[in-house]
Amino acid sequence: MNSPGHDLFANSRDIEKLDFTALTDHGYNLDRPRWAYNGEQTRYNHDPGRFVAFLAEEWTSKSNPPAVAGQPNRYGHRNLIFLDPYHDKFYDAFAGDISPADLWAEMQGVEFVSIPHQLADWQGKGKGNPPTDWNYVDEKLQPVAEIWQVRGSYEYLGAPRQARAGTPFKGYYLQDAWARGIIIGTIASPDHGGGIGKVGAWAEDLTRESIFRALQKRHTFGTSGAKMAIKFSAGRAMMGDKVKRTGGAIEFHV
């Protein structure tokens, strides 16, 4: 963590005026005492109706084992957001050659969401970060992805304000995932603190349960920093819902 957990939560709540947040340190930085501290600070700073704190980590899959020349260095980074603030286990992608499917199998029975993060960074730009491997998808466990963060946009190759570390190859950006028929929604986040990148969620109330369910349902959107409310629907279907078309014209409401 860049700063003590309490300070990071206080910054999100009192300076950035956010409604909810999560601390997502890299799994390889964690050990049992650090994970216990993360949980303690999450529970201490949680204030339903005012500020929601999530227990979380960043599952960081890269260079384990070394990749074949010209191929991405493993599976990409994913933020794991837990519903249970007492979850007593963290997950380190460096503990063996673990794929996202292996991770999700290990976490069977745990309520969490997996969010592809800095999803099209490329190790060839000197960052050491591999792009997201879109062969590993799950509509329930991985319902949303990070379209924007402090590094820039990951919407598509050549997008306005594209992340400088973004791969020069197609196939890794969010629009590439949609083109493959992958069902996944959007969020944004600041990554290393600050106000650049925000996620909005249409939730029943400001509680951990409601916001978590909104993430699962893809009732979310991301902005490059502005605080705004965006609502998009078609009939009774909210943005993020998957419905069967019955024929005829579709009426959208924004």
Number of helices: 5
Could you give the order of the helices and strands?
Answer: HEHEEHEEEHEEHEEEE
- Cα(first) to Cα(last) distance is 39 Å
Overall domain count: 1
- Which stretches are low in confidence, meaning pLDDT under 50 for 5 or more residues running? 64-70
Largest sheet: 4 strands, mixed
Please state roughly what percent of the residues sit in beta strands, choosing from under 5%, 5-15%, 15-25%, 25-35%, 35-45% or over 45%: 15-25%
Average pLDDT works out at 91
In total, the number of strands is 12
CATH architecture: Alpha-Beta Barrel
Cα Rg? 18 Å
CATH topology: TIM Barrel
Strand order of the largest sheet: 1-2-3-4
Oligomer: single chain
What level of helicity do the residues show? Answer: 10-25%
- CATH classification class: Alpha Beta
How would you classify the helix and strand content by structural class? Answer: alpha+beta
Gross geometry: globular
How would you describe this structure to a colleague?
This protein is of the alpha+beta class. The chain has a single domain (5-253), classed as TIM Barrel, CATH 3.20.20. It has helices spanning 5-15, 32-45, 100-106, 174-179, 208-217, and strands spanning 20-22, 52-61, 76-82, 112-117, 144-149, 152-153, 185-188, 198-201, 220-223, 233-234, 237-238, 252-253. Strands 1-2-3-4 form a four-stranded mixed beta sheet. Strand 1 (20-22), helix 2 (32-45) and strand 2 form a beta-alpha-beta unit.
Describe the secondary structure blueprint for this structure.
Blueprint: H1 5-15, E1 20-22, H2 32-45, E2 52-61, E3 76-82, H3 100-106, E4 112-117, E5 144-149, E6 152-153, H4 174-179, E7 185-188, E8 198-201, H5 208-217, E9 220-223, E10 233-234, E11 237-238, E12 252-253
Parallel strand pairs: 1-2, 5-7
Antiparallel strand pairs: 2-3, 3-4, 5-6, 8-9, 10-11, 10-12
Helix pairs in contact: 1-2
InterPro entries: DUF3604 (IPR022028)
Pfam families: DUF3604 (PF12228)
Organism: marine sediment metagenome
